[in-house]
Fold:
Amino acid sequence: MLFNLVQELEIEVATGTFLKQSQVKIISAQASPRVQGKTEVTLYLVPLGETFDKMTAVLIYDRFWQKKVLINRSLFRDYDVITVHYPGIVIYFCFMQPVFDHFCYFISHMQIS
Structure:
């Protein structure tokens, strides 16, 4: 994924999660070791305050798992969610542990076609 697409993906994710672009941080984007031809992207979603309130956290979690975070298909094609992690929310199919356990970040790990 090219550098200019990173910013575009941040905009798309921010729009799809009702956050500001400054709250979406792409931490890594690399070729998927699981699926050839896909890119694995790790995102941090950062609350404006100390934490996301429970309703916002559940809304964001559900939007990722239900693939309601719409991204520009002409640029990124489709995506699959690998993990979503946030303190206090049950994690399903978690392949990754949070890097900063003591911060209240959402961590989303996606594969983009």
The chain is about 25% helix and 25% strand. Strands lie at 24-31, 39-45, 79-85, 106-112.
